[in-house]
From TrEMBL:
Residues 39-202 form the HhH-GPD domain. The lineage of its organism: Bacteria, Pseudomonadati, Bacteroidota, Saprospiria, Saprospirales. Pfam families: HhH-GPD. CDD domains: ENDO3c. One of its GO terms (biological process) is base-excision repair. It comes from Neolewinella marina. This is Fe-S cluster assembly protein HesB. GO terms for molecular function: catalytic activity.
Length: 226
């Protein structure tokens, strides 16, 4: 069995274990998803949601966010970690989008682009890495087949041995994306992320993985050693 075949078999088992297909948690437009993702770094989901809501209540349009004093944007998102970094970063990201889209503040045009080109374009924006670019494309209403890899997903993949043990999230994301069949749509790719993420949250814990409960233990390098 090749590593790709093993990865896809693991994916199948995890999706079955956790009840795929999963209902998407977000139906935002892609630009809103970009802003939310930039807010979310090292911040709990509930805090991110509250900060996003306050930002959009304070500035009802993204044009207003761009034009606002940076201090006012920072104040609106004060609940997140590092608002003094994220405020300017969000404004710069919005400017980059506007400049790259003929003056229009939206990312709807990415619906027609090849996924790799869309991700490269997004990742040229300061502060946007592999996880954020994939989230913009897959978690938003675009629902493109871009695989999001978070720390849970990364840890599970490393222990399984389907990515190198020292692979960064960006490197793991690239490897795992390449394993996926080209015909998978955005929902199927979303299911893959959710299966790995839930396994990391519920069984393959950071400190003490519960290998006795693991449905993929026989396919796992770490589990077989234990």
């Amino acid at each position: 069995m090749t590593t790709q075949e093993r990865a896809l078999r693991i994916d199948e088992l995890l999706c079955a274990e956790y009840g795929a297909p999963f209902v998407p948690f977000s139906f935002r437009d892609p630009l809103s998803e970009l802003v939310s993702a930039l807010l979310s770094h090292r911040t709990k989901n509930a805090v991110t949601r509250a900060a996003f809501l306050r930002l959009t209540e304070t500035f009802p349009t993204w044009e207003e966010v761009v034009a606002a004093p940076t201090e006012a944007v920072e104040a609106a998102i004060a609940a997140v970690t590092y608002p003094e970094v994220k405020g300017p970063r969000i404004q710069e990201a919005l400017r980059r989008v506007k400049e790259g889209n003929g003056g229009a503040l939206n990312l709807d045009f990415l619906a027609e682009w090849p996924v790799r080109e869309a991700r490269d374009w997004l990742e040229a924006i300061p502060g946007v890495g592999a996880k954020t670019s994939a989230a913009v494309l897959n978690f938003s209403g675009l629902r493109r087949p871009a695989l999001v890899v978070d720390t849970h997903h990364q840890r599970v993949a490393q222990r399984l041995g389907i990515v190198p043990a020292r692979a960064s999230i960006d490197k793991a994301s690239k490897i795992l994306q390449e394993y996926l069949p080209a015909e998978w749509d955005g929902q199927r790719v979303y299911d893959s992320h959710q299966g790995f993420m839930r396994h990391g949250q519920r069984v393959c814990h950071w400190r003490e993985p519960d290998c006795e409960r693991c449905v993929v233990r026989q396919l796992c390098d770490f589990g077989r050693k234990g």
